[in-house]
Specification:
Strand order of the largest sheet: 3-2-1-4-5
Number of helices: 5
Mean pLDDT: 88
Largest sheet: 5 strands, parallel
Radius of gyration: 17 Å
Structural class: alpha/beta
Length: 149
Amino acid sequence: MYKKILIATDGSELAQKGVAHGLELAKGLGATVAFVTVSEPFPTLAWGGAMAGYVAADELVNYEESARKYASELLGKCKAEADAKGVGAKTLHIENRTPAEAILETAASEGSDIIVMASHGRRGIGRLVLGSQTAEVVSLTTIPVLVVR
């Protein structure tokens, strides 16, 4: 049924539940997984002020380096978990994109059969204010999404 599973993670405790669930699903089905984590664009508000070009450029470099380091460590842990379970896995770090957009594009480019991701399950004002990348993925994808809470 599912042979290629995309597991999205941001490294949070909640996302780890999605990783664990996705790996168990993959192991049970004999599927492979692709782990994806996304680094959002550097905040544009940081570019204001007279010296902004110089200060923000340094901050941008720091932001990108930190994001790459974090993604490498996170994806390394995910890959190790997959290896320990005997699940074939690859890792992907997508930079300068919104998570939902990157997850959808990665699922398409990887030929994924299902997306596994976690959600806080916010409703009402919390969802409006904080947004929901999971809700956006669910509403825009053409493949199944397994949402872990």
